[in-house]
Amino acid sequence: xxxxxxxxxxxxxSASAIDRQLAFELGRAIAAQGxxxxxxxRNVGVMDAACRGAQQAGGLTIGILPDRTAANASAAVAIAxxxxxxxxxxxxxxxxxxAVIACGMGAGTASEVAIALKEKKPVLLLGATxxxxxxxxxxxxxxxxxxxxxxxxxxxxxxx
Amino acid sequence: xxxxxxxxxxxxxSASAIDRQLAFELGRAIAAQGxxxxxxxRNVGVMDAACRGAQQAGGLTIGILPDRTAANASAAVAIAxxxxxxxxxxxxxxxxxxAVIACGMGAGTASEVAIALKEKKPVLLLGATxxxxxxxxxxxxxxxxxxxxxxxxxxxxxxx
Amino acid sequence: xxxxxxxxxxxxxSASAIDRQLAFELGRAIAAQGxxxxxxxRNVGVMDAACRGAQQAGGLTIGILPDRTAANASAAVAIAxxxxxxxxxxxxxxxxxxAVIACGMGAGTASEVAIALKEKKPVLLLGATxxxxxxxxxxxxxxxxxxxxxxxxxxxxxxx
Amino acid sequence: xxxxxxxxxxxxxSASAIDRQLAFELGRAIAAQGxxxxxxxRNVGVMDAACRGAQQAGGLTIGILPDRTAANASAAVAIAxxxxxxxxxxxxxxxxxxAVIACGMGAGTASEVAIALKEKKPVLLLGATxxxxxxxxxxxxxxxxxxxxxxxxxxxxxxx
Lengths: 160, 160, 160, 160
Description:
Four copies of one chain form a homotetramer.
Chain A: E1 5-9, H1 17-32, E2 36-39, H2 45-56, E3 61-65, E4 79-82, H3 90-96, E5 99-103, H4 107-118, E6 123-126, H5 130-137, E7 143-145, H6 148-159
Parallel strand pairs in A: 1-2, 1-5, 2-3, 3-4, 5-6, 6-7
């Protein structure tokens, strides 16, 4: 009965239009698999775009918010988990996901990829630069993908 | 699109058979309203019983676990949020619930009721002893109920 | 080389003048034993008074702050630990203390006493009402004292 | 009266002998400035080495531990803060430090540097590879140093 949760991490205010488009499509693809989408839940950037994509495809979305309330949550978050603990909630994002996909890169995203490596949680970099890939591969077993299809294929192996 | 979340808090290993029966029925009643049930998620006591009740009634269940993994989660938790932060997660239980119902009492439950009062979150004591009611009423605005019907009526007012 | 830490918990804005006076003297007495004082660190109520007492007696003071910064810390906190996690930091207050003394009562204090019981951490209620004592004694092994001398004698047994 | 806190982050079990030697000397230099040293507190790697260096120089050491108890703390930690929240405590390490110095690199360290950038906390990479420097400089304003003397000079500007 336990639902499979795929976490999508990415930049907030600083996310590029390309990152957001990728995140929207990734959210759609995750929902199409019947998986629950988990993000940091804020109403900006990759978090918001991925949730909107999943919602459009009829999927369930969870936002693990840094704030005490859901006032700044994405409108496409169905289940708002209010942690009130700022960036310390990044560890929860990682631990609660069966697989973690970083869509683009930002400081918060980097902390989540790093914690995933520390926790031996399966993690994939989607659309990352060579610099980011090389940095993380020296720290642990990080996977990479250039397309949503590749990312979903990887997650299928992990999530059964 | 945001789902309404009602948190049910209660004792774990030390929960009485009466507490567990009440929690099971409460979980059923919450699900029957179309609300999401949130608990501490472990596979014991009030947490487990409430989740089983909600699940039986076709409801969605969230467990905010103290552990890094879902290994000890209730089998009736559909969405396992793994915090890895022990009792510090009690604050998340409270903040993420639109309304909090304490079903019976235990040390962890008491911490959650107290945090709810601190955070001005609507909180109700179901089936509490006079001693517990008097203690918490000196600390803030806590409601009480003797029956599941009363508890649901209270939650309806809060959750619209 | 490990320093002994005694935690003093109590109300913030709502602390009575008597609570604050008691906390000040308790802080002094803890420092006089050579113990480090730990509080929730804010510049109000029992937290502030206990830190000022300990500081006046030449002791070391730690504040485990709910905020991201020390802007609202007591001026008598020497070491400010900024958690940025609100009331979730109450669990850290308890876990980091060799012994916990609740000085008066408030909603936050109640959450800390409850977590101490849950974590099997030695905890004493100083100057508590019968109602508070009876409530917590049904939840676990809580000690009580009517005077600072009694509280220090109890802590001496625990802290060697 | 508030003490200045300098955080030193670095690898645990995987730290190299060079990292540990650098951390030991860095701990000594921080203590020599009269600053408090803060680390992740475990009895391995950079955390342990930095604390031993600071302790040898007569400085005060704080360990922000991931565990519920201090059982696995470095023997050179004077003040053990037990968070019981695993890697979520990395955010506390950053927020509680006036300046953060990463000594070498590891997955946990990377998460702390990333959070420092996210929180706009002054952060310096000591002895980092070009790959690490380039990665973090694309995410925010990170400083670098090749020697302890340079690192201390940087911290002096921040810490007054």
